[in-house]
Amino acid sequence: MNNWKFDTDGDVAIITWDMADRSMNVMTEEVIRELDAAVDKVLTDDSLKGAVITSAKSDMGGGVDLTMLANIKAQAAKEGGNVGEALFGFVWALHSLYRKIEVGGADPKTKKGGKVFAAATPGTALGGVFELLLGCHRRFAADNPKAKLGLPETLVGLFPGAGGTTRLVRMLGVMGAADYLLQGKLVNPKKAKAGMLIDEVVPQEELVSSAVAWVRDAKESDAVKPWDAKGFKLPGGAPYTPQGFPTFLGAIAMTHGKTAGVYPQTNAMLSAVYEGALVDMDNALKIEARWFTSVLMDPRSAAMIRSLFVNKQAIEKGARRPDVPDAKVKSVGIIGAGMMGAGIGFVSARAGIDVVLVDRDQEAADRGYATIEGLLDEGVKRKKVTEEAKAGILSKVNATSDYAALSGCDLIVEAVFEDPEIKAEVTQKVEAVIPKDAIFATNTSTLPITGLAEASARPDQFIGIHFFSPVHKMMLVEIIKGEKTGDLAVAKALDFVRQIKKTPIVVNDARFFYANRCIIPYLNEAMIMVGEGVNPSLIENAAKQLGMPVAPLQLTDETSLELGHRIMMATKAQMGDAYEASLADDVLLKLFESEGRAGRKNGKGFYDYDEKGKRQKLWPDLAKHFPHADEQPDFEEIQNRLILAQVLEAVRAKEEDVLVDIREGDVGAILGWGFAPWSGGPMSWIDLTGPKDVVAICDALEAKYGARFTAPALLKDIAAKGETFYGRFQPQQAAA
Ligand code: NAD
């Protein structure tokens, strides 16, 4: 066996997983075949009572190899075979193996004589690997607080389809399993035990011996799962019982409330849960496997897996990194200890990087330090950070007004006021004290990098690193190359983003870079509609039913109307006569300038907020200022306007070479502003909708609303040639 070791300790087999060529174990076809053979060996050897399945690595495993799933699909398609059959074959092999472990060779009628299997996980066990644990009769986990256990499949477009859904619902009931299944909630071993996901948490050094001892002492009944025993009742009740009916109704309503019904995997999972609850275990597993295969066949799931798993990982691993030596950051100097600077300081210190946090005077620097302390205190309160860890992180932060303290920094991130003159002055002051080979990055959100680099004596070492607010929560970081930015600066920025465990995209310089450039037209389109008299509730609901996690008027409130107003005024000033005012300007001016409504920050925006800042209903007077039109537009047209405002801007960014790689455009859109994740991102959305159909929608909207909906030449060309975005730019990934 290449991936497993088979030992025995008396009458107990120990099957140990250790893939030679991977740092983390994952389920592949070969792994499954070999484990199947090892299980057969246990079942057919009379001298063995059962087995412990464990791992020689620090973790058990990361799940099913999704790249392999994509390959099975591509291979079957290439050979002209039946793709569904090929995928079902793989899924069913996994199901059969886990069920074989669970039944343990017991007599099907009497349920007697089964072998006992215990799982012993030293660390993390996710997805398809956690489902292996669920198949076993008892689960042991080492007391490793860093370990993560659970079923994150739904977050990448799948659902736990190797028996996990069916087993968890039978263990915890439909409501008890909901957080794990629907939200992919991961927990450490202690919490997993409290939640009844695992049975025992033991010291690392006693992990295997405890599991072996349990197998050795196990009773015959230990080899029979509750759902295989007579009289089993689903916790919380099955669908057609007085107790279960409202539970299932609630679960269905809750799921749709959370997902707007746009995610194929949650709908399929619900069906698997519901239908599975009506039949016995073997049939329930078949149902689950079929629904799971249907999800694997759904192009939306494939697009989600492509963006949220395969490409996100490729980008994080450095798909766009220039080939230069390791440029990890040891000491980062952050200039400006305001909201952004403090946030960047926090995530850097947390990643073990030394931080010099500089502001104009000691008081301002201390405020930044206090912000970091506040974030850590929150972590302590929520038991995510220990007091020792807090002290360790804070000891990495030197808050000062003395620029000389920057002399040892290899990376600078400037986050002072958004004013080119102040930024230029700071650049020169900093460059006078930092090492000659240090990289200087600016966190500007609107000012072109090439212009800011003019203040630098070393423009090849000058770059944009654009964080999103709040820094500690937002996962995307945009890296912006100015005209003269060199490879070393790009590598440094990428290595830094990797160290702080965020996802980078690398784009070229242009007004608003990539993300903001796409978000602004989306928010504007919603405000234009308000100006036209479209009922704001209709706008918000249209966005939500598109699968946008935050509706546009709500998002405008969150980011603040003040910021929207400031951007509008600055753009107007910069563009002069070329600026085209729209109804969005009128709405902004009315709400912010005339009515003093700045958004959530002052408790009044498109929505009203209570004293605690909790969002209430839409501002009733909005309709007085912008009366609802007698005839409201078609819901689908509102949706098309909202999605195309984003999508067309992404296409223009690609056309203008601001966006270099469409994979980054898709991943960046989902992580940066929550672009409908079910679609896999704007380019994937076009491919799913069909480029020709998208052009037709553009033509109709252009005729009605003007040039902002004109299909860009790149889109027209792709449509005219019958191609897709992935077909043209990422041909090996076009199969989704
Ligand atoms: P902020 O006003 O909260 O903080 C700016 C800090 O810079 C203040 O503490 C100020 O005292 C300090 N400062 C000003 N001049 C300085 C100087 N000469 N030397 C040292 N320190 C000086 O602003 P912020 O929201 O943190 O934004 C900072 C930068 O980040 C801006 O360029 C902004 O465009 C950009 N940005 C902001 C956001 C956002 O959502 N707020 C998002 C991305 C990027």
What do you see in this structure?
By secondary structure, the chain is of the alpha/beta class. It is 49% helix and 12% strand. It is built from 29 helices and 19 strands. Helix 19 crosses helix 24. The longest helix is centred in the N-terminal third of the chain and has 21 residues, at 83-103. The model has no long low-confidence stretch (mean pLDDT 95). Nicotinamide-adenine-dinucleotide binds next to helix 12, helix 15 and strand 15. Nicotinamide-adenine-dinucleotide (NAD) is lined by residues 335-341, 358-360, 364, 415-418, 422, 426, 443-445, 466-467, 469.
Q: Please report the total strand number as a whole number.
A: 19
What does the largest sheet look like?
A: 8 strands, mixed
Helical content class: 40-55%
Mean pLDDT: 95
**Count of DSSP H/I helices:** 29
Task: State the end-to-end distance.
Answer: 33 Å
Report the CATH architecture of the largest domain.
Alpha-Beta Complex
Strand order of the largest sheet: 12-11-10-13-14-15-16-17
Strand content: 5-15%
Small-molecule binders here are: nicotinamide-adenine-dinucleotide
Main attributes?
49% helix, Rossmann fold, 736 residues, 2-enoyl-CoA Hydratase, Chain A, domain 1, binds nicotinamide-adenine-dinucleotide, N-(1-d-carboxylethyl)-l-norvaline Dehydrogenase, domain 2, 29 helices, eight-stranded mixed beta sheet, single chain, alpha/beta
Lay out the secondary structure.
Elements: E1 4-9, E2 12-17, H1 29-44, E3 50-55, H2 66-78, H3 83-103, E4 116-121, E5 125-126, H4 127-135, E6 138-142, E7 149-150, H5 164-182, E8 186-187, H6 189-194, E9 200-202, H7 207-217, H8 244-259, H9 264-276, H10 281-297, H11 299-316, E10 331-335, H12 339-350, E11 354-358, H13 362-381, H14 387-394, E12 397-400, E13 411-414, H15 420-431, E14 439-442, H16 449-452, E15 462-467, E16 476-481, H17 487-499, E17 503-508, H18 515-532, H19 536-545, H20 552-559, H21 561-575, H22 583-594, E18 607-609, E19 615-618, H23 622-625, H24 635-655, H25 662-673, H26 682-689, H27 691-705, H28 713-720, H29 725-729
Parallel strand pairs: 2-3, 3-4, 4-6, 5-7, 6-9, 10-11, 10-13, 11-12, 13-14, 14-15, 16-17
Antiparallel strand pairs: 1-2, 7-8, 15-16, 18-19
Bound molecules: nicotinamide-adenine-dinucleotide.
Nicotinamide-adenine-dinucleotide (NAD) is lined by residues 335-341, 358-360, 364, 415-418, 422, 426, 443-445, 466-467, 469.
